[in-house]
Design the sequence.
């Protein structure tokens, strides 16, 4: 055992991910594979209309079909859950549709059968009669007078304290309007040398976890157990307990490895349906979505973003006005939180005295939207970094120089008024310039192949006022287990948290096990999302391990044995006369920050930390077809200390590849609310042959003083700058500006034709 | 999925006897890479599948005939075709095309016969085989007939085959001085169904072109020869001629709009890729590195 000053050097070691062998050999445990005796499969009957009153549901033919054990509708659910609405911000989403359906694919009924194929077959026999209502799909249209109204009345959930005043608001699709008002924007625009205004658009993106959303629920009548692929087991327990009106200790939530999450497996997804079905059928029920069903379950917001900047003769931005519409779909999910938390960074990592932000969460008749790897930051960065580049080009200032002139640096106040601390904006931008050889001559191509390059930098505030609790249990042989609710969904948290515990205890990392979440055993954590685990849970684990270490030191002192040389096992043997007992360390980490002021959006301490990411892209445009090939992609990040450098690098590259997909090919297409490309045959995520030939992912030397061993999160940082770096590079190559994602070859080709005054016919 | 019967005949004649000329719910299954997806999505609900698995030994040979033709058993997996030295030496364009056809897992099980009989216009080999003047041998209880690949497709997912006929072999004629090239153009990701495929085969040496075939797939409801463009190539291989041929191709191609692109955009792609394919077939430098996309 070590004393306080000895370093065992577990931090900064690229030890291989502990589950890697299990995964590549097919032995890793996933909920998707779980079967229980007597289990039924539930197949969800889904709405075919975007907005309609539910007139009747006839389940008789389905119930009579061979092998069907039951057909469940909202009327059945209400018998055990009288108020069957859930949601983290608004209690707006019914477990099964009640009075009306609000999007295509909404869950209307569930058919249960021991054979999933029979359940699927019978699901087609459920007859639903609708009375169609006018629908609204566009986020800007939805805010206009006369628009169809998705929810007649707003019902804030009360889980987060800052949304209470929205209760009872009627006849509006706008369900959160975040405002930030800093300085005097009107005067700055009136006095400005130059004013620039641009509008950008993004589309819905599917999270595409390769293990689709899945929950298996079982109950003995007095308690319920959920085996669920969830990023948030504690929150699932709280919400299921609330729905049932049961104490939390009668709800047990377990998970396993997740085949990806990316924000899709947060809050309640199919957990409530599975629990309701299991309680009604009195048998275990598994609801396993198909890849196609995920398109109708959760996605990333589509956005419209309007940015306007005032720039002085000196090239300094004096004011920026941002208006951001978030298309939340039919149910708010965590969208309003995102609208606010991400909204306050909409002006970008720039030092601007006068800032005016309006960020609107809007209901529409599309599937619900939530955070996707970056919680809206990649979308905002696409807009503000395109806008920033467009201004620099217009003014004839080098884009790097223009960013240097305006960059938000250490010690300066961000738009909310919070002073930047431990945010390496400057180091990230300068390292990016270096790795892009920005000052070196650049081959611009010839003939039908034109080359260009672009850069972009973005930042994200860590999720604030959240709590992580960890228990470190040291066994009598000197090995130990970390009990916590962080979910390893591929990001390597089992490995990183073991390294932190090992470092704090002064024992080899191999002696540390990280238990997987089981709310009967593992303590509370807000969730595995928002790049919060390394910082929040990392710190909780470190503190818990230190607590255990202090108790071991006290034990050694009480036993009168030398603290530094006595093996842990000997302490237990000496104390209990045999190999027996435990030493349990426990800690809670809840870094404080303020909520933004309701009227001004300002706050002295808006976040426990900032994550900074910059991206550079070199691209080739085929001017005859509009095809864009990214030949070099460079991602630079500030994640403080890298607990495990290899995992950090793979997090950056994975994030960048996801955002490359959001930039180049992904986007759910809707026709009257119906997704027309709802399969991986038509919705294309990047493949190995799309990955840039030169792909650099690195971090700058930095330290987050408030984080465990100087560390903070990194799971999302690689996404921030990718989209704008690519569109800026396209502009650099061929002079066309793409303001709408995805950047399809056709979009680029059409822009080229429009630019040469020979537009391509529609 | 409702239950269905699966038959595993040992011989071709047994297999043919199990097919039904009238019943569309009875179908042969070879690699199953396409049919299984159709069954999973509910587009196809079989009452009987006739598995051709046990016929594989007799129908996976690749033989060179005395007249220089290649005879390829219909159950030959695409990967075996890709790797066969005889194919690489006699019709290298086939091996090149296969390299980016779907992925190696699919190519290991998908068969030549299934690939053709499926008649999905996005398949890569049909335009190439049409350009190479290949034919298929078709068997039924009534005997055997040959059909040019060019005449095999009746429409979108439709062939001229009767429900009780099976493709038994693919015959690729000797290519002589014919030079061929295929471009698969994708617009959403590198690994995707093509937005269009363009295959060309040019017969003749140097600029003296005796005959040219230009075949378009994926953008059309079935693979289609672009005859107006082919005719223009009778005038030679000068850049201006190739450009006119490409223009004619864009004009005559009956392209459809879909998730890969609008019709106007696809016509532009036809214009570009017909020229690129011709240049590559004619051996012009600087086009090979742009093969994909």
Sequence:
């Amino acid at each position: 055992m070590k004393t306080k000053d000895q370093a065992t050097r577990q931090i900064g070691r690229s030890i291989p991910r502990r589950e890697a062998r299990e995964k590549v050999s097919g032995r890793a445990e996933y909920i998707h594979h779980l079967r229980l005796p007597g289990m039924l499969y539930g197949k969800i009957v889904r709405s075919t209309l975007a907005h309609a009153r539910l007139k009747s549901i006839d389940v008789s033919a389905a119930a009579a079909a061979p092998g069907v054990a039951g057909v469940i509708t909202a009327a059945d659910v209400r018998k055990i859950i009288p108020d069957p609405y859930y949601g983290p911000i608004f209690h707006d989403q019914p477990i099964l549709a009640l009075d009306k359906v609000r999007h295509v694919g909404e869950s209307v009924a569930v058919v249960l059968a021991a054979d999933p194929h029979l359940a699927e077959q019978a699901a087609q026999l459920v007859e639903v009669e609708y009375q169609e209502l006018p629908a609204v799909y566009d986020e800007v249209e939805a805010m206009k007078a006369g628009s169809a109204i998705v929810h007649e009345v707003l019902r804030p959930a009360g889980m987060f304290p800052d949304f209470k005043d929205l209760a009872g608001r009627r006849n509006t699709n706008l369900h959160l309007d975040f405002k930030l008002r800093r300085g005097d924007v009107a005067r700055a625009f009136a006095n400005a040398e130059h004013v620039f205004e641009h509008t950008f658009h993004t589309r819905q993106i599917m999270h595409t976890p390769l293990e689709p959303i899945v929950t298996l629920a079982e109950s003995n009548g007095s308690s319920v157990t959920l085996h669920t692929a969830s990023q948030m087991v504690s929150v699932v327990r709280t919400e299921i307990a609330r729905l049932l009106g049961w104490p939390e200790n009668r709800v047990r939530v377990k998970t396993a490895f997740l085949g990806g999450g990316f924000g899709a497996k947060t809050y309640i997804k199919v957990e409530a349906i599975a629990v309701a079905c299991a309680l009604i059928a009195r048998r275990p029920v598994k609801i396993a979505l198909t890849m196609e069903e995920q398109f109708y379950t959760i996605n990333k917001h589509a956005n419209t973003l309007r940015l306007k900047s005032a720039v002085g003769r000196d090239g300094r931005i004096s004011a920026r006005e941002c208006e951001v519409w978030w298309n939340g779909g039919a149910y708010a999910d965590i969208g309003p939180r995102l609208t606010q938390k991400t909204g306050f960074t909409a002006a970008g990592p720039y030092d601007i005295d006068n800032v005016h932000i309006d960020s609107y969460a809007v209901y529409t008749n599309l599937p619900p939207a939530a955070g996707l790897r970056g919680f809206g930051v990649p979308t905002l960065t696409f807009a503000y970094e395109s806008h920033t580049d467009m201004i620099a080009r217009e003014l004839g200032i080098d884009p790097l120089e223009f960013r240097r002139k305006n960059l938000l640096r250490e010690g300066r106040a961000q738009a909310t008024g919070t002073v930047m601390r431990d945010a390496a904006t400057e180091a990230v931008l300068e390292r990016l310039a270096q790795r892009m050889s920005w000052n070196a001559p650049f081959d611009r191509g010839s003939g039908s192949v034109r080359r260009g390059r672009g850069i972009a930098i973005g930042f994200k505030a860590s999720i604030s006022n959240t709590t992580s609790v960890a228990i470190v249990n040291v066994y009598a042989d000197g090995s130990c287990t970390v009990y916590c609710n962080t979910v390893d969904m591929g990001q390597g948290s089992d490995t990183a948290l073991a390294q932190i515990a090992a470092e704090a205890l002064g024992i080899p990392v191999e002696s540390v096990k990280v238990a997987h979440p089981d709310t009967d055993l593992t303590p509370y954590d807000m969730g595995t999302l928002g790049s919060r685990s390394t910082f929040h849970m990392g710190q909780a684990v470190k503190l818990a391990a230190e607590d255990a270490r202090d108790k071991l030191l006290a034990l050694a002192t009480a036993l009168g044995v030398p603290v530094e040389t006595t093996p842990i096992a000997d302490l237990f043997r000496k104390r209990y006369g045999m190999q027996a007992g435990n030493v349990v360390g426990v800690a809670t980490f809840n870094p404080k920050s303020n909520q933004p002021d309701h009227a001004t959006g300002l706050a002295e301490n808006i976040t426990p930390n900032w994550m900074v990411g910059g991206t550079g892209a070199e691209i080739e445009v085929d001017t005859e077809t509009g095809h864009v090939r990214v030949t070099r992609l460079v991602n630079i990040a500030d994640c403080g200390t890298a607990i495990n450098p290899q995992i950090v690098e793979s997090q950056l590259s994975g994030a960048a590849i996801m955002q490359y997909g959001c930039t180049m090919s992904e986007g759910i297409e809707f026709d009257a609310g119906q997704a027309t490309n709802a399969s991986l045959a038509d919705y294309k995520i990047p493949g190995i042959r799309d990955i840039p030939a030169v792909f650099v992912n690195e971090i700058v030397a930095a330290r987050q003083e408030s984080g465990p061993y100087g560390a903070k999160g990194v799971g999302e940082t690689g996404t921030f700058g990718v989209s704008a770096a690519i569109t800026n590079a396209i502009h650099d190559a061929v002079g066309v500006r793409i303001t709408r994602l995805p950047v399809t070859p056709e979009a680029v080709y059409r822009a080229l034709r429009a630019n040469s005054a020979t537009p391509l016919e529609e | 999925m409702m239950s269905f019967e699966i038959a595993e005949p040992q011989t071709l004649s047994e297999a043919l006897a199990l097919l039904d000329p009238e019943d569309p719910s009875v179908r042969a299954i070879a690699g199953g890479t396409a049919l299984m997806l159709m069954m999973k999505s509910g587009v196809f609900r079989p009452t009987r599948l006739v598995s051709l698995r046990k016929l594989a030994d007799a129908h996976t040979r690749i033989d060179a005939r005395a007249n220089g033709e290649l005879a390829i058993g219909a159950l030959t997996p695409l990967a075996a075709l890709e790797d066969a030295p005889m194919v690489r030496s006699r019709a290298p364009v086939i091996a090149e095309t296969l390299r980016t056809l779907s992925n190696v897992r699919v190519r290991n099980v998908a068969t030549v016969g299934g690939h053709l009989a499926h008649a999905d216009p996005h398949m890569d080999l049909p335009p190439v085989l049409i350009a190479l003047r290949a034919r298929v041998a078709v068997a039924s209880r009534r005997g055997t007939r040959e059909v040019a690949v060019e005449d095999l497709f009746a429409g979108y997912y439709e062939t001229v085959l009767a429900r009780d006929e099976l493709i038994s072999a693919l015959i690729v004629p000797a290519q002589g001085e014919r030079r061929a090239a295929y471009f698969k153009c994708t617009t959403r990701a590198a690994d995707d169904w093509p937005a269009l495929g363009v295959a060309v085969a040019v017969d003749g040496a140097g600029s003296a072109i005796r005959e040219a075939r230009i075949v378009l797939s994926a953008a059309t409801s079935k693979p289609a020869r672009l005859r107006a463009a082919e005719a223009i190539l009778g005038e030679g291989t000068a850049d201006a001629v190739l450009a006119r041929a490409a223009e004619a191709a864009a004009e005559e191609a009956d392209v459809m709009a879909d998730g890969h692109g609008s019709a106007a955009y696809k016509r532009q792609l036809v214009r570009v890729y017909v020229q690129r394919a011709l240049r590559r077939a004619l051996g012009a430098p600087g086009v090979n590195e742009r093969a994909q996309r």
Remarks:
- Chain A has a mean pLDDT of 96.
- Chain A has three domains: 20-29+466-589, 34-135+209-261+264-294, 299-463+597-755.
- Chain A touches chain B at residues 117, 120-121, 622, 624-625, 627, 629, 661, 664-665, 669, 676-677, 681-682, 684-690, 744-746, 749-750, 760-762 (CB under 8 Å).
- The two ends of chain A are 72 Å apart (CA to CA).
